[in-house]
Design goal:
DUF1899, actin filament binding, WD repeat, mainly beta, 2 helices, Methylamine Dehydrogenase, Chain H
């Protein structure tokens, strides 16, 4: 592996927090997702419980042993395949299930006090179990989902319906929006990377990315502040000799007929067995690789010229991870020069991991903390559906200058079925009262005549 010799990130180190979340009873169901999600308010993990899929949503400051009677999100009748917090509201959680539905949940600021069974909305339309769900990072109320029915659907949450449905050639292994929310990258069981243009309802380009049979994953690289720098992706997979590898691709060089092409570089990592999940930080241009079943997280610096990947270091532990995820960049503590904050999912615990750049100065470090994604929508669903493209809204990371702090923006303008029924009942009561009042007035007029 190439080693960075002259870089401000050469000495980045991982530091496990002394505080963690313990006594987790995780679901034993194997998932293709990262297995854990988090933001500034909550962490979410799949929970072991009977009667369908359940999720535990835990306030991010409630460290220690979790109670045995933990309140759960428990509205699905089948196992949960994927889940994700909204990028614009820390209180909104979407879940995808084997029961063929997707459900949006509103989590109270103080966390759950009782089991949550009534979602804000339920999306129905897939014919088989739903494998992935992910929010558009730029447009509010737009969501992508994939299913074993071999379709990728784009949902308009404001209308609670699918705006587009795009056929995919095989079972999906991973899904990722680009920064502007204009394209969706999909890796599938056919060992190919597919770039979907959802508003054209087609796969724009595709290419074969690996030889091995293990699941493949994908991540966009580049800079969210410039659409010209968002044409490359990183995929992870395996060779025919069972080596895990990472590859970089340029979509501008990928063929439209699905044949091989567009590859910039290939790097064999090791002979591990678990899928490698790539996470890219555009602020530092660093790539993190966390493998399921591994006990380490490798990180690289990504550059625009050969060899493209410069290995920096690996954060190592003695405990294997069942999953790993990173919090939004706005959640890091710049005061301790923290550039990324991760959540390591273990068999019965969640361990926060802080990645830091050692600096002697306690002052804000502009060079390692450029503007980050603010957690505010750049456009609404109607703008996106009309064909508009906008880069995410960025916010300074310097304390006191942020456009948004802690959580994302307001909740989407969607109304649950329960609230709709309540509003309908109230409207019907009002109509009935007005009709009775009208009839009484007519009777009085008739007597007066």
């Amino acid at each position: 592996m190439k080693v960075v010799r002259d870089s401000k990130f050469r000495h980045v180190f991982g530091n496990a927090s002394k505080e963690n979340f313990q006594d987790l009873r995780l679901s034993s169901k194997p998932l293709e997702t990262t297995g854990i999600r988090g933001n500034s308010k909550f962490i979410c993990v799949p929970w072991e419980a009977g009667g369908g899929g359940t999720l535990a949503v835990i306030p991010s400051n409630k460290f220690g042993r979790l109670p045995r009677d933990l309140p759960l999100v428990s509205g699905h009748t089948g196992g949960i395949m994927d889940f994700e917090f909204s990028p614009f509201s820390d209180n909104l959680l979407m879940s995808a299930s084997e029961d063929t539905t997707l459900k949006l949940w509103q989590i109270p600021d103080e966390g759950l006090k009782s089991h949550l069974k009534d979602p804000v909305l339920t999306l129905e339309g897939h014919g088989k179990k739903v494998s992935f769900c992910t929010f558009n990072p730029s447009a509010e109320n737009i969501l992508a989902s994939t299913s074993f029915d071999m379709t990728c659907k784009i949902w308009n949450l404001a209308e609670q319906e699918a705006a587009y449905s795009i056929p995919v050639p095989d079972q999906v292994m991973h899904v990722k929006w680009n920064y502007s929310g204009s394209l969706v990258a999909i890796t599938s069981k056919d060992k190919k990377l597919h770039i979907v243009d959802p508003r054209q309802s087609k796969i724009a380009v595709a290419t074969k990315i690996c030889e091995g049979p293990k699941p493949t994953k994908v991540e966009w690289v580049g800079n969210p502040s410039s659409s010209d720098e968002c044409n490359t992706l990183i995929t992870t997979g395996m060779t025919s000799q069972a080596d895990r590898q990472i590859c970089m691709w340029d979509i501008r060089k990928m063929p439209a007929d699905g044949t091989e092409g567009g590859n910039l570089t290939v790097l064999n990592v090791d002979q591990g067995t678990g899928a490698l999940y790539p996470f890219f930080d555009p602020g530092t241009q660093m790539l993190y690789l966390a493998g399921k079943g591994d006990s380490n997280v490798r990180y690289f610096e990504v550059v625009n010229a050969d060899p493209y990947f410069h290995f920096i270091e690996a954060f190592k532990t003695t405990v294997p991870q069942k999953g790993f995820d990173f919090l939004p960049k706005r959640c890091v503590d710049v005061g301790v020069h923290e550039i990324m904050k991760g959540l390591k999912l273990e068999s019965t615990a969640v361990q926060p991991i802080s990645f830091r750049v050692p600096r002697k100065s306690e002052a804000f470090q502009d060079d390692i903390f450029p503007d980050c994604v603010a957690g505010l929508p750049a456009m609404n669903s109607d703008d996106w559906l009309s064909g508009q493209d906008r880069q995410p809204i960025l916010s300074p990371m310097k304390p006191g200058m942020q456009k948004v702090q802690g959580s994302g923006g307001a909740a989407p303008a969607v109304v649950s079925v329960k609230d709709l029924k309540k509003q309908l009942a109230e409207a019907q009561e009002k109509i009935k009262a007005l009709e009775e009042e009208n009839a009484a007035l007519k009777a009085e007029l008739a007597k007066a005549a």
